[in-house]
Amino acid sequence: MLRMATIDASRITRAALRDLQAGRPVKLTREGKAIAALRALPLRPRFNPAAELAAIRKADKGDDWAEFVAWPA
To answer: Once rounded to an integer, what is the mean pLDDT over residues 44-65?
Structure first.
């Protein structure tokens, strides 16, 4: 089994951070050997909140929640 390499994130240079922000990959090295390549990806929401809310409202249309809550358990 291969040993896992770790690196302290505070040791990443400013130039490497600028490259990550620009979307370019950055090679991480230890003892002169490349141990990993990092690449930052833009954050993408997994869902559209407006569409989700519209679907919930459509599904609940006509429901009388007050009557449901008052129903004896």
So the answer is: 82
Which residue type occupies 32?
Answer: G
CA angle at 56 for the pair 50 and 61, rounded to the nearest 5° = 125
Cα gap 11→3, rounded to integer Å: 21
Maximum alpha-carbon separation in the chain:
71
Distance CA 71, CA 64 (A): 11
Per-residue pLDDT, 2 = 62
* Residues paired with 38 in a beta bridge: 26
- Would you say 13 and 27 are in contact if contact means Cβ atoms under 8 Å apart? no
Structure tokens given for 70: 């008052």
pLDDT digits (tens, 9 = 90+) for 1-23: 666 666 677 878 899 889 988 88
Q: In 10 A of CB 20, how many CB atoms? A: 15
